[in-house]
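Worked problem 6 (solution included).
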Amino acid sequence: MTTANPTTDPTVSPVPPASRDMDSVEDLCVLISSKITWGRGETPALLAPDTPLLEQGLLDSLAIMEIVAALDKEAGIALPDTEIVAANFRTPQALWSAVEGHRATGGARA
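Solution. The predicted structure is:
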């Protein structure tokens, strides 16, 4: 796996993980992209909100758990176990809807 350099690679967010805001589905796309194990010689890609993550085989169970952990640690969004289901990881937009729904019920940490 090649590690992308955020200072020279425009597809990688230069924002340090500890200060990452999660204000839009585009921010979520950057986070998801950073957790995908891209193939050897494969350039990390920017994801669109409607990218079919599961259909394209971009996520496995480890990547999903890394995304969940990053949402909690980096953005203060602690999804409950009931939200960690395949339907919420089909696309970045599907996960964003789950995040927004969780926030609406007061689920995000301060």
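Discussion: The two ends are 34 Å apart (CA to CA).
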